[in-house]
């Protein structure tokens, strides 16, 4: 009988403006998963969206776990899951990446597949459809990715300088990723492509070198944010706040509708949150602001916990 297995998987913010499907960062909100083999399937949950997480019907972790073991022609041992969730679900902060990584790690452990950490990552990235948020969730920190042959994926963690604080601005309503992707054009002009390439490279280096003075321009995006703004009203409301109360960058988080604000220090975070609240209130918009830091540990924070 395999021993119980524990994972802590962080929330993420992907795309980061111009780095569409290529970069993401992990922050210190987590999905904590405690799993063990049981006589029958069961899920208990606490924390954010606990009722949704505790469902055994259409449960992404269990459904994906069973799917992966069917693919491997292995009978899926029933599991008892205990979940403690801090990640907003369906708001652009990597909840599905965390769920799919949990499922792949559980399939490896309890199905005897003996996958490496890289294999767990690549399996989850295949299921997710893009690797940036999966990479940040699994490996931690600021990560850039590149698709390889087949399901392979290259990734690199970028050292980050500076004492950045991040403000996650979380709306009440979720936005299905497929709806957000449907409004993005399939083709872009050469000018837009060059502009985004320049911004994405400058963005990664600005974070790596602690250059908050460059971040505002480095977050400029022509590929997805202009088209998603109608679905994500927090973004056009908050973009003009860059340069105020220590806010040095603003971007849609993942596919939205949540927004990531980069703040120059922890000391500025409370004032920035008040500015966000007042700005949204003036537009009759509601959202929660959560102050977080970069999560640097991985994979899975605790890979195959003992």
Describe, in plain words, how this protein is organized in 3D.
The structure is a single chain. The chain is of the alpha+beta class and 306 residues long. It has 2 domains: 5-158, Ribosomal Protein S5, domain 2, CATH 3.30.230; 165-292, Alpha-Beta Plaits (2-Layer Sandwich). It has 11 helices and 10 strands. Strands 1, 2, 3, 4, 5 and 6 form a 6-stranded mixed sheet that branches. Strands 8-9-7-10 form a 4-stranded antiparallel sheet. A hairpin with an 8-residue loop joins strand 1 (5-14) and strand 2 (23-37). The protein is globular. The two termini are 14 Å apart. The mean pLDDT is 94.
Oligomerization state: single chain
CATH class bucket of the largest domain: Alpha Beta
What's the order of the H and E elements? EEEHHEHHHEEEHHHHHEEHE
Instruction: Provide a count of the helices.
Output: 11
Number of domains: 2
Alpha-beta content class: alpha+beta
Q: State the total count of DSSP E strands.
A: 10
Name the poorly predicted regions: none
Indicate the percent of residues in helices.
25-40%
Rounded average pLDDT: 94
Sheet-strand content, in percent, reads: 15-25%
| CATH architecture tag of the largest domain | 2-Layer Sandwich
Key descriptive features of the protein:
six-stranded mixed beta sheet; globular; alpha+beta; single chain; Ribosomal Protein S5, domain 2; four-stranded antiparallel beta sheet; Alpha-Beta Plaits; 11 helices; 306 residues
């Amino acid at each position: 009988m395999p021993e119980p297995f524990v994972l802590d998987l962080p929330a993420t913010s992907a795309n980061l403006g111009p780095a569409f499907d290529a970069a993401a960062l992990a922050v210190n909100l987590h999905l904590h998963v405690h799993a063990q083999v049981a006589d029958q399937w069961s899920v208990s949950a606490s924390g954010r969206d606990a009722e949704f997480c505790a469902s055994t019907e259409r449960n992404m972790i269990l459904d994906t776990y069973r799917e992966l073991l069917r693919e491997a022609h292995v009978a899926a041992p029933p599991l008892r899951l205990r979940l403690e969730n801090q990640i907003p679900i369906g708001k652009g902060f990597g909840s599905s990446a965390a769920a799919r990584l949990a499922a792949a790690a559980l399939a490896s452990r309890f199905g005897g597949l003996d996958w490496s950490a890289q294999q767990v990552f690549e399996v989850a990235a295949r299921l997710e459809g893009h690797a940036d948020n999966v990479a940040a969730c699994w490996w931690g920190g600021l990560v850039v990715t590149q698709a390889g042959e087949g399901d392979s994926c290259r990734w690199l963690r970028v050292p980050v300088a500076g004492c950045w604080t991040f403000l996650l601005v979380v709306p009440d309503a979720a936005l299905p990723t497929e709806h957000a992707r449907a409004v993005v054009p399939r083709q872009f002009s050469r000018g837009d492509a060059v502009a985004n390439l320049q911004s994405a490279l400058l963005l990664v280096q600005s974070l790596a070198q602690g250059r908050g003075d460059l971040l505002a321009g480095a977050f400029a995006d022509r590929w997805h944010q202009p088209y998603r703004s109608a679905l994500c009203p927090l973004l056009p409301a908050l973009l003009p706040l860059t340069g105020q109360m220590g806010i040095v960058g603003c971007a849609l988080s993942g596919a939205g509708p949540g927004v990531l604000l980069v703040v120059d220090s922890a000391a500025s975070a409370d004032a920035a949150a008040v500015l966000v609240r007042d700005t949204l209130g003036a537009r009759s918009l509601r959202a929660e602001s959560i102050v977080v830091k970069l999560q640097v540990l991985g994979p899975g924070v605790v890979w195959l916990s003992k």
